[in-house]
TrEMBL record:
It comes from the Bacteria. This is Aminopeptidase N. Keywords: Hydrolase, Metal-binding, Metalloprotease, Protease, Signal, Zinc. Residues 50-219 form the Aminopeptidase N-like N-terminal domain. InterPro entries: Aminopeptidase_N-like_N (IPR045357), Aminopeptidase_N-like_N_sf (IPR042097), Peptidase_M1 (IPR001930), Peptidase_M1_aminopeptidases (IPR050344), Peptidase_M1_dom (IPR014782), Peptidase_M4/M1_CTD_sf (IPR027268). GO terms for biological process: proteolysis. Its cofactor is Zn(2+).
């Protein structure tokens, strides 16, 4: 479901990081990036955030956002200065109660110099007061804020937080969230987790949401508008909260018929991936017809209405909810590990197809493999390290899922499904890499798997072997027969939430440019 090539200036940021290492001398500035090879300027060094408290006010008519962010953090080095990733206009910063000086630099950096240097291991409270119009702010030539007729939405990957709250914006720094937003009466506010309370005063209503499990910053979502909200509880006991824009038009029925099954789908996925890791589940569909993607915003995925233009689409719901385990609970260590997110969420769609009687995972794998000729550029993309320009290419999804089917056929169903369920428990609320997954698969299966992983994830060519030992692909040079109900499978088997519109190009991740 995603996008974004390396931002301009990234190499310069990388160079800067080299001269400001995390192990720098006493009271040195924190690095302006956390060290991701794809996005060197993303995230920051020198501290770790444990909690974000956001108390905001939003005016849909003008797209004005104002308020205060309070960050609870701890320093990881002696620190003279540190950065936050942010774009709106800051009026005041306090560090441990004292006013701090601040300045902006680069495309999205807020540099903060506390009154007194901070020693390593210090508990830090950072208060940032700010305001601005998110839709007016750009970084690297794009804007991740989605303006709607009745409000605004923040849902983007690998970046999205910059447009509405200051943060350490990288999956390596997860935190819990309290998000409190005041909107005019008649407008609702949707975010992650559970709705703790609402209160109305003088024509405004305040919504208080809480995410009580670690959450990476790009998974925090903001949605203000006029929604129909439904609530309930899944058969497995998970609270369900869904929201649909009142002006979805002809897509309203299909969207609701799909997303109202979120509780059922989360319970079904729990059979494969283990207990659901969060305090609620659901989804929301704002009226954002200009974009065609969906995003796994934690507990409450974002869906574009375009995803339901051909009717119900439970497959995309499966994809986004699979991410609650693979991508949200266990997040990438660096963005090059994106296969850990997308290959697994795509494979969950194949398992759902099998569950619904619309084609087995093996049938779909056979078809996908045979549908791409050996000289198709698809096979030059390496899902295990695709590069920032191909981070959300369809090969990361489809070839990534083929790798899992190959693994399943190599080690057998018992070990394969033990791995699918054990992995989220082993790395719960943390981060992991492709290399970590290979080692775990070898540990559980008791088999050496380096060659299999190299063939399917790292070689820039079509594997000569079949997807499965003795599969139809190995026996025939022609494409196998289409699975049952293939038309429906194909319609939901594109670049996950992007659909077929980006199937042969670079998937543009969370916002289209």
């Amino acid at each position: 479901m995603h996008r974004r090539i390396m931002a301009p200036g990234a190499l310069a940021a990388a160079s800067l990081m080299l001269v400001i290492p995390a192990s720098a001398a006493s009271h040195s500035p924190g690095a302006p990036g956390i060290g991701d090879p794809y996005y060197p300027a993303y995230g920051n060094g020198g501290y770790d955030v444990s909690h974000y408290d956001l108390r905001l006010k939003y005016q849909p008519a003008t797209d004005e956002l104002e308020g205060t962010a309070t960050l609870l953090a701890r320093t990881t080095q002696d620190l003279s200065r540190f950065n936050l990733d942010f774009l709106l206009d800051v009026s005041e910063v306090r560090v441990n109660g004292a006013k701090a000086s601040f300045a902006t630099s680069g495309e999205h950096e807020l540099e903060i110099t506390p009154k007194n240097p901070l020693a390593k291991g210090t508990a830090v409270t950072v208060v940032v007061r700010y305001r601005g119009v998110p839709s007016s702010k750009e970084a690297y030539g794009f804007n991740a804020w989605l303006r709607t007729a009745d409000g605004g939405v923040a849902a983007g990957e690998p970046e999205g937080a910059w447009w509405w709250f200051p943060s350490n914006d990288h999956p390596l720094d997860k935190a819990t969230f309290d998000v409190s937003v005041q909107v005019p009466n008649g407008t609702q506010f949707i975010s992650n987790g559970t709705l703790q309370s609402t209160s109305s005063r003088a024509g405004w209503t305040r919504y208080n949401w809480r995410s009580n499990k670690p959450q990476t910053t790009y998974l925090a979502t903001f949605a203000a508008g006029r929604f129909d909200v439904t609530t309930g509880t899944s058969e497995g006991g998970i609270p369900v909260i869904n929201a649909y824009s009142k002006d979805l038009g002809d897509n309203y029925g299909a969207a609701r018929a799909s997303i109202e099954r979120s509780g059922e789908i989360a319970d079904w996925l729990s059979e494969y991936f283990g207990p659901y890791p969060y305090n609620s589940v659901g989804g929301y569909v704002p009226n954002t017809p200009s974009v065609g993607y969906a995003l796994e915003t934690q507990t409450r995925p974002f869906y574009s209405p375009r995803g339901f233009s051909n009717g119900t689409n439970t497959s995309v719901v499966v994809h986004e909810l699979a991410h609650q385990w693979y991508g949200d609970d266990v997040s990438v260590e660096h963005w090059k590990d994106i296969w850990i997110n997308e290959g697994f969420a795509r494979y969950a769609q194949w398992l759902w197809s099998e569950h619904e009687g619309e084609g087995t995972a093996q049938e779909i794998a056979d078809y996908v493999y045979a549908s791409r000729a050996a000289d198709d550029p698809f096979w030059t993309v390496r899902p295990g390290n695709p590069g920032p320009e191909n981070q959300f290419h369809i090969a990361v999804y489809d070839r990534g899922a083929l790798a899992l089917q190959a693994l399943r056929n190599e080690i057998g169903d018992k070990a394969f499904f033990e791995i699918l369920k054990g992995w989220p428990q082993k790395h719960a609320y943390g981060n992991a890499s492709v290399a970590d997954f290979r080692r775990y698969a070898e540990e559980v299966s008791g088999q050496p798997l380096a060659a299999l992983f190299d063939t399917w994830l790292f070689q820039p060519s079509k594997p000569a072997a079949a997807v499965a030992r003795g599969a139809s692909i190995a026996r025939s040079a022609t494409a196998p027969a289409q699975p049952r109900s293939w038309k429906k499978i194909a319609a939901t088997n594109g670049v996950h939430d992007h659909g077929r519109e980006h199937a042969d190009g670079h998937a543009e991740h969370e916002h289209e440019r």
